[in-house]
Design goal:
The structure holds 2 protein chains of 2 kinds.
Chain A (H helix, E strand, L loop, with lengths): L9 H7 L47 E11 L36 E2 H13 L3 E2 L2 E2 L2 E4 L9 E4 L6 E12 L5 E16 L3 E5 L4 E5 L6 E11 L2 H18 L11 E10 L9 E6 L2 H20 L8 E5 L4 E4 L12 E2 L6 E2 L18 H6 L5 H12 L3 H8 L4 H11 L4 H18 L11 H12 L5 H13 L5 H7 L8 H14 L1 H9 L2 H14 L6 H13 L1
Parallel strand pairs in A: 13-14
Antiparallel strand pairs in A: 1-11, 1-12, 3-7, 4-17, 5-6, 5-16, 7-8, 8-11, 9-10, 12-13, 14-15
Helix pairs in contact in A: 3-4, 6-7, 8-9, 8-10, 10-11, 13-15, 13-16, 14-15, 15-16
Chain B lengths: L1 H6 L5 H12 L9 H11 L6 H15 L23 E2 L9 H6 L4 E2 L2 E4 L18
Antiparallel strand pairs in B: 2-3
Classes of the chains: A alpha+beta, B mainly alpha.
Chain lengths: 557, 135
């Protein structure tokens, strides 16, 4: 079943990068996809390892890859970071732009309280130290979508530092053991987003839409503690879930609310780190792991061929499936950081340091925010496992789809069936139906109560498992009918009359003496044949397990 | 080579300033070389135009260097003249925007309601291509 964890030991797989056949040119990325916060998601399906361990032709020199990430998450707020224009996806070009956003002279930045709270919440959820004093700086560079010629960011003293993000990988296909990995968070800072450029190749011009210019971003910098594309993708997925649980960002990659840049280098274990490249434009969940693994492989190939790695910025070309150097990036940028002269330091307080008589609108209390933090995904999963005894991978799967957890909990509330049964039905059958038809949970024609009723019938052994599936199909197609109605309409009830069933078994056995002989000789398939025959006679209204019991009993008597 | 040192892009503002003056001018002659001028012109899109402008820059640096005469050991640097002010926090309400026509009036060219820009950054011509030499 789909789960955001990765089958197969990531450690083992990442070390599998070590003995790579140097002749291989293209790394076929593990197509890991995970559901975005938008309703149309792809199931997160872990695939076979990207690069299987093979003996390197050029010798057994192992490589280790080092991956760091810079993640930009758009803050979910009504207005922008320093101005009162609206934050909204898809609006007429330049309609959500204030004079400040357009960088007209005489305008000044005014900090949005909600953005600061979002940064503090995120910092606390990621175990960061919140800096009670943080500063804003200007980062200068020229680009048409940055009207001021600089971006206001927090380079010297960001709002949160030294945190950690825990994510899980599963070890081995058989063992299903879950290990937790941690990536350190260097810092979280508030900064402005730039506008959008639409490149018009035909007319050799760029069209600029400033609707996005000035939107608040949280930049989360992950230290290079990850070693392959899949670890990076899993960490990003977990961050996505945390941000969504906090409500600080919708973190929808498809809508550009979550953007990832990766810093990648390779080296031989024990030796100093190699030259790193920056890979930008990783804006798709599906291709994140693939792009990173491609770049790792590319660097290994280059180095094994005696070439050097340039400290450059590259972009991932989705169509070609490879990274390419970016144009327009001349050497090293000198951003000429300077303090933002129009903004005093940002001061945050806790309950102990809160100034008496302060205007509550004008002060932010870290302790207050900590108290109001919602439950984080890792805690939710823990509770599910403890409360319902489900497997860790199932807890991941339940949290991986928008609305699925709520659906599951509603079904549990109304049914007497065991949680394991409910889990199986929700994750396999229900989710399967949704995925086939590309529907979100809230678009399901089957409501939790209806499924609960069906599971009750199953639990009371009114119907067999096979019949239940039939009923489910029918429920999906025709709304308004209850499971009981369908069961009686299609006469799917299990035969309750044990004696009648015994008579049928007896008749069938008499009618097929050869099969009975096979059975006596111990042929396991013979009994299945008999079961099949009995089921046919009873129009599938008998429980196969019960049939088997009766047949075996009759045989031995 | 000091020029390369400058071009490496010191991140810290204070560090840059100190690094700039000490590394650009190891002999203390107070001259700013052509490479540095070119680098500044590229970064800030200012045009130094004449030798007088460069001289003015050198004088300004020398003037600022006099700060070094002050002993600042153990003194916290001031980040901004606003450091004692309160940073005002605005409520998260939408109160601006929706003025596309006014904004586009400032634009030299528009296409539908987009601003129009060249396809990418246009690089400054290299120093030897420029009509004025900073030597």
């Amino acid at each position: 079943m789909a789960a955001p964890m990765l089958r197969g030991c990531c450690l083992g797989r990442c070390w599998a990068l070590a003995c790579i056949d140097s002749g291989s040119r293209h790394g076929r990325g593990a197509a890991t996809g995970f559901t975005s916060s938008g309703k149309r998601g792809q199931s997160f399906v872990a695939q076979q390892p990207l690069l299987t361990a093979q003996k390197s032709r050029k010798g057994e020199h192992k490589w280790a890859a080092v991956v760091g990430l810079e993640i930009h998450a758009q803050i979910a707020s009504n207005s922008k970071l320093f101005s009162g224009s609206q934050v909204h996806f898809a609006a007429p070009p330049n309609s959500l732009v204030s004079f400040f956003d357009a960088s007209l002279p005489g305008t000044l930045p005014v900090l949005n309280r909600r953005c600061v709270e979002a940064a503090v919440m995120t910092g606390l959820a990621l175990n960061c130290h919140i800096n009670k004093k943080s500063l804003f700086d200007r980062k200068h560079y020229f680009y048409a979508d940055l009207p001021a010629g600089y971006q206001i960011t927090q380079q010297r003293l960001p709002i949160a530092v030294n945190g950690s993000l825990a994510y899980s990988v599963s070890v081995g296909k058989k063992w299903r053991q879950v290990i937790t990995k941690t990536v350190r968070i260097k810092q979280i800072q508030l900064e402005q987003d730039s506008g959008k450029s639409l490149h018009d190749e035909l007319q050799s011009q760029t069209l600029i839409d400033l609707n996005r210019a000035g939107v608040g971003l949280l930049e989360v910098v992950l230290e290079p503690d990850m070693s392959c594309g899949e670890e990076a993708a899993t960490a990003v997925r977990e961050l996505q879930l945390i941000l969504q649980a906090l409500g600080t960002s919708q973190a929808n990659m498809a809508e550009g609310q979550l953007r990832v840049d990766a810093n990648i280098s390779v080296h031989h274990p024990g030796e100093p780190l190699g030259v790193r490249t920056e890979v930008k434009n990783l804006n798709s969940a599906r291709f994140l792991a693939r792009a990173i693994d491609y770049e790792i492989q590319r660097q290994i190939n280059e180095l094994e061929n005696g070439c050097e790695i340039l400290n450059e910025t590259r972009s991932f070309d989705y169509k070609l499936g490879c990274t390419v150097p970016m144009r327009d990036k001349e050497g090293k940028q000198d951003y000429r950081f300077m303090p933002e002269p129009n903004l005093p330091p940002l001061l945050l307080y806790d309950t102990a340091s809160l100034p008496a008589g302060a205007d509550p609108q004008q002060v932010i209390n870290i302790d207050r925010i900590r108290e109001q933090l919602p439950e984080l995904p890792s805690k939710t999963r823990e509770k599910l496992i403890q409360q319902y005894g489900i497997l860790p991978e199932h807890s991941f799967a339940l949290l991986n789809e928008v609305g699925l957890l709520e659906f599951f909990q509603n079904v549990i509330k109304e049914t007497r069936a065991e949680p394991k049964k409910v889990t199986s039905w929700v994750l396999n059958i229900f989710l399967g139906f949704l995925k086939q038809r590309n529907l979100a949970v809230n678009e399901s024609p089957v409501t939790p109560s209806v499924l609960a009723e069906l599971l009750n019938l199953l639990d009371r052994k009114v119907i067999s498992s096979a019949a239940a599936k039939q009923v489910f199909e029918e429920l999906w197609r025709s709304k308004g009918k209850t499971p009981s109605q369908i069961v009686s309409e299609r006469k799917l009830e299990l035969m309750q009359d044990e004696e009648a069933l015994e008579r049928v078994c007896h008749t069938v056995m008499e009618g097929h003496p050869q099969v009975v002989m096979d059975m006596k000789r111990g042929n396991p398939r013979a009994i299945n044949k008999l079961i099949g025959l009995v089921r046919k006679v009873t129009h599938n209204r008998a429980d196969p397990t019960v049939i088997k019991e009766i047949l075996e009993k009759q045989l031995s008597s | 080579m000091w020029a390369r040192a400058v071009l490496l892009g010191h991140r810290s503002w204070m560090g840059w300033h100190r690094g700039f003056t000490s590394k650009t001018d190891p002999q203390g002659s107070g001259r700013v070389t052509a490479e540095v001028i070119e680098h500044l012109e590229r970064l800030a899109l200012v045009d130094f135009g004449s030798q007088e402008a460069v001289a003015r820059l050198e004088k300004a640096i020398a003037f600022a260097d006099r700060l070094r005469a002050v002993d600042t050991d153990g003194v916290e640097p001031m980040e901004s003249v606003l450091e004692d002010r309160c940073l005002y926090l605005r409520s998260d309400n939408v109160v601006e925007g929706n003025c596309v026509e006014e904004l586009l009036q400032n634009a030299h060219r528009v296409v539908e309601e987009y601003f129009v820009a060249p396809p990418g950054n246009i690089s400054l011509p290299k120093q030897d291509e420029q009509p004025f030499s900073h030597n």
